[in-house]
Design goal:
Shape: globular
CATH superfamily: Aldolase class I
Distance between the termini: 60 Å
Order of helices and strands: EEEHEHEHEHEHEHEHEHH
Strand content: 5-15%
């Protein structure tokens, strides 16, 4: 789903993308379903991990990477599965060699149960990678102070979660997410926890710049149709944000004016 002509495109680290949807590549029922879903959604980037299996049955070795290249969508390597700063650095440097790209989705996991980012060491990892020439998109919580620190060390965008990875719960802390959006001016992409297209539309209506999805599409009964639904929802939410929503009212307001309407008295 491309942006409409009157909707500014997504800009990250000076690079322009015509879609505000990023898509993961794991856990799909088959390689062909993944390929068709990507063609339906037309995402800005595809995430891929060197440390985790793709989840596509029958795909091993170079065949998965060959398919990604054939799709002609920019790949965003990630450091999924890393639990230390050194693991992150090593994985990111390997990904840069394999994919020939400075882009990296920074994941540093602090808790294996919730897959919550390691908020104590994330800034250090981001700072090192930025100094090493990476264009870092850090996966983080909706914590305002953490996100500000990531921006302070050079991250030109941040990727807060809406809920723990793979839960599909949608935004579980709307107040914090809306506050975060109001306080920071850098691009923000909601990464993790969205389960429905309405969730994506909602965060886009709040002013977020994009969403990154994987499980919500890959585990849908019809991943291809769901990919398209999310693409439309992201665009609808962005259009709604730019349009400016009406002010919420406490009492009913007539939608049809009565001025000039004949008033008939009943005998």
């Amino acid at each position: 789903m491309q942006t409409s002509p009157d909707t500014p495109a997504l800009v990250l680290y000076g690079q322009t993308f015509q879609s505000r949807l990023l898509l993961g590549t794991s856990r799909y029922p088959s390689p062909s379903v993944l390929e068709t879903a990507v063609r339906e959604a037309k995402p800005a980037m595809l995430t891929a991990s060197l440390r985790r299996q793709t989840g596509a049955p029958g795909e091993t070795g170079n065949s998965f990477w060959d398919m990604l290249r054939k799709l002609n969508v920019p790949v965003l390597p990630n450091t999924a599965g890393c639990h230390s700063v050194q693991e992150v650095i090593t994985t990111a440097q390997m990904a840069r060699e394999v994919f020939a790209t400075p882009w990296i989705k920074l994941e540093l996991i602090g808790d294996d149960y919730t897959l919550q980012p390691d908020t104590l060491n994330l800034v250090e990892a981001a700072s090192y990678l930025i100094k090493d020439g990476f264009q870092v998109l850090p996966y983080c919580t909706e914590d305002l102070v953490l996100c500000q620190r990531l921006v302070d060390v050079g991250c030109q965008a941040v990727m807060p979660w809406a809920a723990p990875i793979g839960t599909g719960k949608g935004p579980i802390n709307p107040y914090a997410m809306r506050t975060l959006r109001e306080r920071l001016s850098v691009p923000m992409i909601v990464d993790a926890g969205l389960g429905l297209p309405s969730h994506a539309c909602q965060v886009m209506e709040w002013g977020y710049d994009g969403v990154l999805l994987n499980t919500a599409v890959a585990l849908a009964q019809d991943p291809v149709r769901m990919a398209g639904a999310f693409a439309h929802a992201v665009q609808a939410g962005r259009d709604a944000f730019i349009s400016g929503a009406m002010a919420e009212q406490d009492a009913a307001q007539p939608s049809t004016p009565v001025l000039g309407t004949p008033f008939w008295h009943q005998a």
